[in-house]
Every structure is written in structure tokens, then in C-alpha cells.
Amino acid sequence: MSEQRTEQRPSTAEAATGACARPRILTGDTPTGRLHLGHWVGSVKRRVELQATHDCYFIVANMHAFTTRADRPAEIRSDSLEIVRDYLAAGIDPAKATIFLQSEVPAIAELTFLFSMLLPFNRVMRNPTLKEEIRVKGLGESYAFGFPLYAVGQTADILAFRPVGVPVGEDQVPHLELTREVARRFNQLYCRVSDQAEDDDHVALGGVFPVPRAEVGAVGRLVGTDGVNKMSKSLGNAIFLCDGTKEIQRKVGRIFTGRQSPTEPGDPANALFQYVDAFIDDDARRGELRDRYARGDNIGDGHIKQEVAAAIDRLLAPMRERRAAYEGRDDAVLEILRDGCARANRLAEATLAMAKEAAGLGFFARAVEYR
Predict the structure, then answer these.
(1) What is the DSSP letter of 172?
(2) CA angle 24, 44, 185 (to 5 degrees)
(3) pLDDT tens, 63-87?
(4) In whole angstroms, how far apart are CA 128 and each of 121, 133, 176, 228, 290?
(5) Could you tell me if 78 and 168 are in contact, meaning their C-beta atoms sit under 8 angstroms apart?
(6) Is the pLDDT at 366 greater than 60, yes or no?
(7) CA-CA distance, 348 to 160, in Å (whole number)?
(8) Is residue 59 within 8 Å of residue 5, measured between CB atoms?
(9) What are the helix (H) ranges across 18-61?
(10) How far is 255 from 305, CA to CA, in rounded Å?
(11) What does the H/E/C string look like for 134-149?
């Protein structure tokens, strides 16, 4: 294990300075429950691919979970461990990538405070993703101050690790645009980078932070099994990465299309065919299904749902097997997180030192360690 880690991941010196031969990415999730297929196609699949070629940091944003569940800390702690199990099940390898807890990296909180000075309040509240979450979660006007603050905190989650890219789902692109604005503003205000500079040139011109780009998955937004809304645990329309064969069949069977007869021409732009495109690998088969469906060539929704369910089950079977190895083993999960948090702190502390020096706040050196 140790030899593999040496080959696949940057050295301690690299982590401490931020120097690395491979481009760095940062992404992650708020632990609100187990991961589902929407997470997989939107971001997680890309993470698994990128860990072979990039310096990958994956954050479990457990502090953000407190924005709406501050009264349920035990639940958040449990969800944090469960999401790590899902990462491991999906194929994220801690020998190649760094998995860590947001709450264990104090530099993130300090950068959040600093970055909050660079963003007008009305700009934060114009974030369409934030508005949608307030609507979907029914928060009205009663949400905590920390809820809009998490949009600023997310910029610190990202920039603390100075990544060049952030794999995200389509709905998270507005959050990333806020991060890009913060990076530009900081570099212009404290590092004298010209406001005419190209985004890719900021670091070369003396900026502390790269202006990271969004890397949206092949399916930016997977509709849930209700056929209407984005897949979400809270809406009860999700297929989870840990679901078994019968559960997958049951949930896929619920996908609504409105079509009445196998001889009735169907619309291959419906929700069911988003699943066909996302999970059936054979190009020729997808084309055949699409053609017959559009012509009403005696092919029913039920037949297509069976093929989709079988394809999803083939995808998830090895994930279920990998996840089983960590069920009931909190100690193994915590050991992975301890190692990841130590590495994350080395890099985040280096970033914080650079930012504080640029902003005139660099008085003393410090280090973070675990006992």
C-alpha cells in the first residue's frame, strides 16, 4: 500500500508547497445521505477517471450539512462516514486520491471569512443554485445566516487547494462561477494581477489562486424516477449506488413517460431515454431502441425499462461488492480520513499562508497536526 501511494500521490514536500507534476482538481459532496446515480453521472464517474491522471482532492463537506441540520449532529456524522463508503464503492482509491473532512481543515474557515469580504451580499443571494435550494427545501425566510454563507464557504473549500478544475454537476456551475469571481478579485486586489488578465494566466502573473474551470459530467442533470425533477434523496426519486437488483428494477419501473401503447410513437426525449443514453453502453442498441420507440414499432416502455434496469445493475454490482468490504468498519473509514485530512492540511495551510501574506495578515508560521 505504501509503495503504491508513493507512486500515485505527490510527496509531502509537493503537498506542502502545492507543487505537483499533475494538474490538481477538487470536488466533493455535502453528506446528506448516500450517493445516487445522479451523483455518479454528474461528477463521481469523472472523479474515478481523473484519479489516474490528476492530483485529486475529494472533500466531505460536513460543516455545510449544519446549514439545514444543525440539530442533528449524530446524523451528519453518520452520513459523513457513509459517503466515504460510497466513494470507495464507486472506485475512488485512497492510494491515488485524497479524501478528507471539511471540519478537520481549519484553513477553510479562515479563508471563508476572508473571501466573504470580497463578495457583496446581494451577489451571493443572486446565486440561482442557492435560490433553488431555498425553494426546494421550503426554507422560506427562516434559514440560518450560515445557509447563504455556505455559498462563500464553498469558494474556500475549492480555492484552499488551488485546483485548476472542479468536476461538478450542471446545477453546481453557478457556485463555481462565484469561486472564479473570488479568485479573480483576490488576485487583482492583493497580488496586483490586471483585471484584463486571462483566467489561465493569473498564477503566472503572481496571483495566489488559479481561476478554476468547471468540468461537467457527460450527463449534467439526471432526472429522477418521477420523470420530472432532478434526482434527489429528499424527493424520493433516487436510485442509490448501494441499491440491489430488485430495488433497481422496482425504481426503474416507476419512471413515467405518459406513453400508453407499444404501437404508439413515443418521444425519445423523455426521461426514460435519458436513462437509456446514460447507462446502456452499446451505441447500436441505443440507436435501435430510439428508432423503434419513435416509430411505435411494437416496443413497450416495460421492455426498455428491463434493459435499463439490467444495465444499471451491471454498473452497480461491483460497487455493492466494494462497499460490503467497509460495512460496519468505521475504524477503516476513519483511518482513510485521518490520512487524507493530514495531507489536505499540509496543502491548505500552505495556501492560507500565501493568502495571508498577500493580504498583509502573515505574522507567524503554524502547522496543523492530529493527536
Answers:
(1) G
(2) 45
(3) 999 988 899 999 999 999 999 999 9
(4) 14, 9, 12, 19, 34
(5) no
(6) yes
(7) 5
(8) no
(9) 37-39, 45-50
(10) 8
(11) HHHCCCCCCCCCHHHH
User: What nine digits make up the cell of 291?
Assistant: 428508432
Cell of 23: 494538474
Q: Residue 162, by phi and psi: left (phi above 0), alpha (psi -120 to 50) or beta? A: left
The crossing angle, in degrees rounded to 10, of helices 62-69 and 73-90 is 140
Q: Identify the residue whose cell numbers are 422560506.
A: 140
Q: Are 321 and 242 within 8 A, CB to CB?
A: no
Express each pLDDT in 261-317 by its tens digit: 888 888 888 999 999 999 999 999 999 999 999 998 888 889 999 999 999 999 999
One-letter identity of residue 350: A
Total length of the chain: 371
User: Which set of grid coordinates corresponds to residue 122?
Assistant: 446581494
Q: Residue 28 has which C-alpha cell?
A: 466533493
Q: Indicate whether this model's pTM tops 0.90.
A: no
Cell 420530472 maps to which residue? 228
pLDDT band at 259 (very low <50, low <70, confident <90, very high): confident
Rounded distance, CA 27 to CA 42, Å? 12
